[in-house]
Each structure stands twice: as C-alpha cells, then as structure tokens.
Amino acid sequence: LSCGGLFGNLYIGSSVKNCHNYGDVYCRGAVYYGSLSPAGIVSRAEGCDILGCSNSGNITGIISDFGIFESGAATGGIVGVARGDCNIEKCSNTGTLLTRDTFGQYDQASACGGILGSSFTLQYTTNIIIKNCYCVANISTITNYADKKFNYAGGIFGATYGYWNEPVQHNITIENCYAAGTITADTIGGIIAHEGWIIYPRSAIVSNSYYSNTIESWNEYGESLSDDYMKSAEFVNVLNTDGIMFTLDENNINNGYPVFAERDLFDVKDNVVDNEITAYPNPTSGLVFINSVDKTNCNAIDIYALDGRLIATHPGIALQDNVIIDMSNLPNGVYLLKASFVDGSKAATRIVKQ
Question: Fewer Cβ within 10 Å of end Cβ, the chain: N or C?
C-alpha cells in the first residue's frame, strides 16, 4: 500500500518542490517489499528530488498481514521508502509518526524516520542525501517482537532494507539536520536508527546534525543537545554553516526550535524576470520602503510568514508612489515580501521585523 499525503509513487526524474501536507495519513494492510509505506509527501520515491516540502499531518502505518512476501514496513514524515537515489533538502516534519503491528506473527523489520522512513533496493546502489531538514515530532514503532530489535525509529532516517540474494549498497549522507521530540522503538537513533539491516555493504556519513536529549539514541550518529540550547540563537548559528538556512522561531510556530529562514516558497526564485525588490530599513520596527517596483506594473505586494501563511496583501492600485508597507502590527520575526507584476513575473525579498 502506497499511501502518501500528496503522492503515492514517484519515479526517476520526478521533482517535488514547495509542497505542504496538512492532512492525516492512515495506511493499514499487508507488507509487500516495503510497500506499506505511509508518508506526509511521497510514499515511494524511486529516484526523485524532494525540495522545500513540509508535513504537519499525523502519519500512521498498521501492519495487518504478511502479504505475498515477507518484508519491511516504513513510515516517513516526508518520504516513506526511497527505492533508488533520493535527494531531500529543506524539508520538515511536525506530524506524529506511528508504525504498529497488529498481525501478531510479524518478525521482519519495521522503520520510522522523521524525514525518510527507509531506503530499499533489490540490486542497485542507492544514494540518499538529506540536507538542511528537521523533524519536531513524536515517533513510535511498536510490534509484537520487541525482544528481536526489529523496530527502528530515527529522528531523521529509519533504516535500510535490502534483499538477501543481492549485494546492494546504501550510501546515506545527512547534513545540517536536527530532530526533537520523543522516540519509542526497539532500536532508536537521534538521527539514524540503523544504517544497514542486511549484512551487505552500506555506509552513512552524518555531519553537523543534532538531536534533543529527550531522544535516547543508541548509536554515534549526530550529537545530543539540550532543548534550551536547541532553541537558542547560538544553535541557529551552528546550523548555518553553509549560508543562512535557519532562523529563530520568533513566532513560536515550531515550539521554539529553529525554522527555515527561506524555503524558496511558491517558486519565487524560478519566476523572477525583473530586478529583485529591495526593502529598507531591514530589520524594521514598522514602515518599510520598497525599491525596484514599478507601481503601474505591480498587481500586489504580499507578506508571507515562513511557514507559508499569507499575512497581508497590498493591492497595486493602493500602493503609494514610494511604495510603503506598514509592518508595525506584525509579531517580531522573519517574513517574505513578494511582488507580483502584470506580466506574470515575481520578485521577492526577506525582511526581519523586530
């Protein structure tokens, strides 16, 4: 069963950008080569790029039978199972994840991952890259074989699967990620629960990635930090080693943990044909002056929160000659100002309200 909040299956060459799932996903059935794989965005990704996507729905997978072949089940905040190369960047999950066995005789692997549930391949090398992502959620993997350590749950990634007759290779790279919440499973990882279920070659490289000390990690991947530190400006600076990716959660939309400073919402950068707009002063405490906007050619200037919510709209016909936007009534935080023009082009800039 391929149950995704937005997509069931995606194949080689597919790209998903700037999508969000709000709805709960519930998937109940038999396992068949990892096909019981509920996820917030894509259930099964067979060679895809998943960029700038987020999930806030609760994701549940219930194992009720073996199916035709015994195999693993996986639940992921963004992707359930990656069956081929998969690149996941600037994605986040805040929905609860649960994989549960009700069959009673199941003795194969079950995995949950805050971003990716598992990677699975029959015969080809699989390259997984997860970069600049976060999960703030509770994760549980519960079956009737607790003493066999077959239940894997990781703050970012669950576990790899393979096939007994094929020498498969899983290469996993995780950079600039963090996880917070609680995890319940037989085998727990703050970042990765298990990098290889089958004995064939596999490797995992984890750099600059962290997890809350509320997660009792069983391996060396990632670094444990206190909740207070992970909500601090110092931690934001630690994450921003490759440019400004994260910022403080000034509006408390993520329980105080860092949020994205910019997620390329609504394909803004892909559609700019005029000059990018500039706004000053930045930071601002109220009035904002905007340059590089032709008032007669401007349909509107919109203000977005970083979670994608439209905060305010200023129609072009209402703009003054020098294009002034008043942000004094908005909470402190980082916002996206987007100008839309009559020729269909867009331009945008970030601004800090303090």
Answer: C
